[in-house]
Design brief:
Blueprint: E1 6-12, H1 18-27, H2 29-36, E2 39-46, E3 63-64, H3 67-71, E4 76-79, H4 87-96, E5 100-103, H5 106-123, E6 127-128, H6 140-146, E7 152-158, H7 161-173, H8 177-187, H9 195-198, H10 201-214, E8 224-226, H11 234-242, E9 245-257, E10 263-275, E11 287-294, E12 298-305, H12 309-329, E13 351-361, H13 366-376, E14 381-390, E15 400-407, E16 410-411, H14 412-423, E17 428-438
Parallel strand pairs: 1-2, 1-4, 2-3, 4-5, 5-6, 8-10, 10-17
Antiparallel strand pairs: 7-9, 7-11, 9-10, 11-12, 13-15, 13-16, 13-17, 14-15
Helix pairs in contact: 1-12, 2-12, 4-5, 5-10, 7-8, 13-14
L-homoserine binds next to helix 7.
Length: 440
């Protein structure tokens, strides 16, 4: 066997992901050494509870509750504790101690990424985080390295498995949101507190990370517009299906170019209509996919498991091998550029298509009134479908009708003001839903 130099690896966290990382590191040590050009010695595993149940059979003597001491003298620190503190403090401690850091912690990077990257820059350390967005799917490295010579125009990602599972079951079975959420919790896809997933916080963190890389710009979490899926009901899913769409929770990261050539970006997470022929429409279950459009490369699709202990461990170990190679070869790592520094625009500036569903009085002139309000609001109608909900038996009028209006591209600010005017017009009984249409 080759006489490799030994690198000391500290693991912080042995939960769903950490226990699998430790297991694979121990099982495949020789193979990983050949790939990394260094022996990766798992020096210890820091946890909260030494007697906690682990998903893998790991040597007890590796466990410690003293993360701080474990970090000192390590070449690579793998942070898989999650959350902000003490993860942030330990990651900064690892960097200051001269280690490279591997982390899957999207919450930390989306909120304190600049602090972490600056600390690493100052001492020439590297931070690897392939697993922080879309789990096992290689997307960080493609954006950071493979597409570094191109210009990314747009990313549309299904980056949260829980919500994709829920929306997919609602779409395929006509099920209700609450029922599917309960099943997702029973199956372990959704957390007991599902807020981070269903309200779009998890997807927004991933969107901030992807947009930062794609547009070489620091994107703070508060620049990401976020809406969750709790307002999506079975009727909306059915209406989308009828019109040839599926509803997906999308993370959209977009480069915008004004008439004067100046550029900005929009980063947003919301449930959107996607045409059933679009590659993202065929992403089922808890899978993730990231659809990238770049000026030269064209359309690229990255697909696979966005979560899961062993799946995510694959991405983490890829980073560990990269970090080890850099330690052995020396020199700077992959690096990151935030020099473009593009401003992020508020949601009102976004231009996309919409589907507006209204319940209206079924009276003469109502359609004309609705069309007039849309026209005044600079919202151009592409399609209209009317269904009578309830009609007078004799005249076949006088009841209610459902109007589903598809628009051409419109500015979000114009659209929302127009919807407010429609709601107040006296002919609209109820604004049932307003959904963006993405994917063209
Ligand atoms: P878990 O909650 O399953 O595990 C967290 C681990 O960290 C536990 O072993 C816990 O110790 C340990 N820990 C927590 N706080 C401390 C502390 N203060 N000191 C020492 N140890 C601590 O998390 P996951 O494995 O699910 O996630 C880890 C990271 O990976 C997160 O950032 C997450 O967002 C990310 N990720 C997770 C995915 C997944 O599918 N699970 C997918 C993609 C990314 P103890 O066991 O003793 O409580
Ligand atoms: N809760 C996340 C999801 C998993 O459902 O995709 C890890 O990011």
């Amino acid at each position: 066997m080759t006489d490799y130099r030994t690198l000391r690896v500290a693991l912080l966290g042995a939960g769903a992901v950490g226990s699998q990382v430790a297991d694979l590191l121990l099982k495949h040590g020789d193979e990983l050494a050949d790939r990394a050009g260094a022996k990766l010695e798992l020096a210890g595993i820091a946890v909260r509870n030494l007697d906690g149940k682990r998903d893998a059979d790991l040597p007890r003597e590796l466990f410690t509750t003293d993360a701080e001491t474990l970090i000192v003298g390590s070449d690579i620190v793998i942070e898989l504790m999650g959350g902000i503190e003490p993860a942030r403090t330990q990651v900064l401690h690892a960097i200051a101690s001269g280690a490279d850091v591997v982390t899957a912690n999207k919450a930390l990077l989306a909120t304190h990424g600049s602090e972490v990257f600056e600390a690493a820059d100052q001492v020439g350390a590297e931070v690897y985080y392939e697993a922080a967005a879309a789990g096992a799917i290689p997307i960080i490295r493609p954006l950071r390295d493979s597409l570094a010579g191109d210009r990314v125009v747009r990313i549309m990602g299904i980056v949260n498995g829980t919500t994709n599972y829920i929306l997919d079951r609602m779409d395929t079975e006509g099920a209700d949101f609450a029922d599917v959420l309960a099943q997702a919790q029973a199956l372990g896809y959704a957390e007991a507190d599902p807020t981070a997933d269903v309200e779009g916080y998890d997807a927004a963190q991933k969107a901030a990370i992807l947009a930062s890389l794609a547009f070489h710009t620091t994107v703070p979490l508060d620049a990401v517009h976020r809406e969750g899926i709790t307002s999506v009901d079975a009727a909306m899913i059915e209406s989308a299906r009828h019109a040839g769409y599926v509803i997906k929770l999308l993370a959209v990261c977009e480069r915008l170019t004004a008439d004067d050539g100046s550029e900005s970006i929009s980063v947003r997470v919301y449930p959107a209509l996607v045409e059933r022929t679009h590659p993202l429409a065929s992403v089922h279950g808890a899978n993730n996919a990231v659809f990238v459009q770049a000026e030269a490369a064209g359309d690229l699709m990255f697909y696979g498991a966005g979560a899961g202990g062993v799946q995510t461990a694959s991405a983490v170990l890829g980073d560990v091998v990269s970090a080890a190679r850099r330690h052995i070869a020396g020199g700077v790592g992959v690096g990151e550029s935030t020099r473009a520094n593009l401003p992020a625009v508020p949601i009102g500036h976004v231009i996309t298509r919409y589907q507006i569903t209204l319940e209206v009085d079924d009276q003469p002139g109502v359609l004309a009134t609705v069309a007039g309000i849309l026209s005044e609001g600079r919202v151009s109608i592409a399609t209209v479908e009317q269904t009578v909900i309830e009609a007078d038996e004799n005249t076949q009028t006088g009841g209610s009708a459902r109007l589903v209006i598809g628009t051409h591209k419109a500015r979000e600010q114009d659209l929302s003001e127009t919807v407010e005017r429609l709601a107040a017009s006296g002919v609209v009984e109820r604004v049932v839903s307003v959904l963006r249409v993405e994917g063209n």
